[in-house]
Amino acid sequence: MSFIEFIHQRHSTPPKHLVAPAPSVDELTIIINAAESAPDHANLKPWRFLVIDTEQRAALGELLVQALTRKDPHTRHALLERERERALRPPMLIAAIARITPNHQKTPDIEQFLAAAAATEHVMLAANSLGYGTIWLTGSRVYDRYVMTGLGLHTDEHLIGLINIGSIAPDAPPKQPNRRSVTVAYWQG
Length: 189
What we know:
It contains 6 helices and 5 strands; from the N terminus they run αβαβααβαβαβ. The protein is α+β, with helices and mostly antiparallel strands.
């Protein structure tokens, strides 16, 4: 399969279809190192990745529940359990983190966020190329400073997503990416 074909067939795998095994230590090294080729103005490397493996997923679930309870102390028990379960679905999560150098003379914050996003996509593509399923999930829990602090992020760091990663379950339905044609326009000056 050509690289273009590989990119065109890429799709997200829902967490309920991600099962053990997760990537090995050696595979994880390959996956994370793929971030190094992301576009990066001024060579700041404004990203880092935090692996949340099998043993730590329950602690992440508790952190997510605490964050939700802080926002709304009257959250229904069923919603709290659902939040706890989010961390337990995939066999591994990778927290994608943008590490911003504020007021950089060459690279505005937005470019640093974009570089971190590109690095995150590279990580996902590397995992997919090794046969693993992935999905990049966000939401209010990801952007919650309480969650970021609980994960050990510094004030100049921002959680930009939780990559759910694992083997694709044998009973997962085949995914056909729903693609729309991209409209190309040419500027006429």
